Amino acid sequence: MERSTHPRLDLSLDAAALTARLVDLPSESGDEKALADAVEEALRALPHLTVDRLGNNVVARTDLGRAERVVLAGHLDTVPIAGNVPSRLDEHGVLWGCGTCDMKSGVAVQLRVAATVPAPNRDLTFVFYDNEEVAAHLNGLGKVAEAHPDWLAGDFAVLLEPSDGQVEGGCQGTLRVLLRTRGERAHSARSWMGANAVHAAATVLAKLAAYEPRRPVIDGLEYREGLNAVRIEGGVAGNVIPDECTVTVNFRYAPDRTPEEALAHVREVFADCPVDEFVVDDHSPGALPGLSHPAAQAFMAAVGGTAKPKFGWTDVSRFSALGVPAVNYGPGEALLAHKTDERVAVDRILHCEERLRAWLTAAPQD
Ligand SMILES: [Zn+2]
Q1: What angle do CA 101, 225, 152 make, to 5 degrees?
Q2: How far does the centroid of ligand 1 lie from the alpha carbon of residue 231, in Å?
Q3: Rounded to two decimals, what is the model's pTM?
Q4: What is the tens place of the pLDDT at every residue in 294-348?
Q5: Annotated active-site positions, please?
Q6: What's the CA-to-centroid distance between 162 and ligand 1, angstroms?
């Protein structure tokens, strides 16, 4: 007799209790299999859903022939655990632990809607994917988009990333480049025999320190760009003039720039620096807010509040590339994501679940 060894998810738990279960089932990037198995099994038990799987990505759909299809998406992975698992619920109704905010509370809401709204007013697609917190080429949503773009088809998508329970339109792009300077190694007692690559990198740092980022307004939302060194590597030994130095630069850019324009801009900023090598390490485009789309407006009306811009890069951009307007709307607080004291208020999780349910069960409008 076959016995299941992986943990099970009980979708009759409320979204907060379910969040705790999901946090207690650790799933750092690259290690999502057990959680993906549990999610797939729980969804397959629901007769109103068709379930597909690609790697550790699970997609479930209703097929009711509704006029519109809405996608609810969330990533299963978390950043590395930092002594903050298992989860802990405190006396103020706050749930602590890795992934509580980013974004297992959102995933719990997705699972609750999947389990408890069998006849939604719009057809629903639920997407659970892996490897969001690591380099873009590993991203599970990207892999699904490549192999089965039809699985992601829809009129509108909501990503349940932490957004403080507010709707966030669009997202900024992110570009990471390596700027490498080269010199010539020498004994530091005879430094004039060499050329110091670390000193050459000073010109790059000076450009960064003097850089004035833009704050463009798009669709009524103000974005804030940033160009920053995020790492610097150089040096051979305590008595050697270094012959190589690499500054890793991250450019967060507003969605009115195309990826090509963003790259051209960064090249231009450093054009007169003595950089010997310019390597694009990672690049993900931004997404325009898309708030003028009718599907987005119906959603806004249902959940209330006013939209804000999204500064961090999110997979909204991948949906946007597939022609599906998308927003972020999730219970976590964006500022708590990736922190060791990551946490989420239980009432925010329940509120998010309640707003989505209200939107998806309201009588259709003419
Ligand atoms: Zn996230």
Answers
A1: 55
A2: 22
A3: 0.79
A4: 777 888 888 888 888 888 888 888 998 898 988 999 999 988 988 999 999 999 9
A5: 77, 132
A6: 7
